[in-house]
Amino acid sequence: MIKSFEDLDCWKKATALRKRIGLLVKNFPSEEKFRLIDQLIRSSRSVTANIAEGYGRFHFQENIQFCRQGRGSLYEIIDHLIVAFDEGYLSEKDLSDLKSDINECLAVLNGYINYLTRAKSEANKVGEPLLSYTTPDNE
Q1: Cβ(98)–Cβ(91) under 8 Å?
Q2: What is the pLDDT along the chain (139 residues), one digit of tens a residue?
Q3: Burial degree of 40 (CB within 10 A; 0-12, 13-18, 19+)
Q4: How many Cβ atoms sit within 10 Å of the Cβ of residue 138?
Q5: What is the CATH number of the domain that holds 79?
Q6: Can you tell me whether residue 89 is helix, strand or coil?
Q7: Residue 21, domain extent
Q8: Strand, helix or coil at 59?
């Protein structure tokens, strides 16, 4: 049962990716601290933060929108990793492995977005409120 955004598989996978990115950038040159390192850390944190914020909105459409923003951040991470590869900070294998992890995150997040979209549609058909789950205020 989902009681918090922390229970969502998409958040868990994105958290694992965020941690991996955090370890990876420790090996980048110090001159990238306020450039590529900062961008990778920010975009990886954005994914989990958007999933959490969307969940906390307690409405299907807002949750979907925040998940879409998180999805965009996953693509941003890919671009930053390509830059890291082009600059010689990342091996081709590491790039490939990270892209694979990101694609897995994308698949799970897209599944969650699809679930929310279907749930919103079903709620609209039966005239239920668009709350997607119970909040402490509406229990």
Answers
A1: no
A2: 889 999 999 999 999 999 999 999 999 999 999 999 999 999 999 999 999 999 999 899 999 999 999 999 999 999 999 999 999 999 999 999 999 999 999 999 999 999 999 999 988 776 655 555 555 554 4
A3: buried
A4: 9
A5: 1.20.1440.60
A6: coil
A7: 5-126
A8: strand
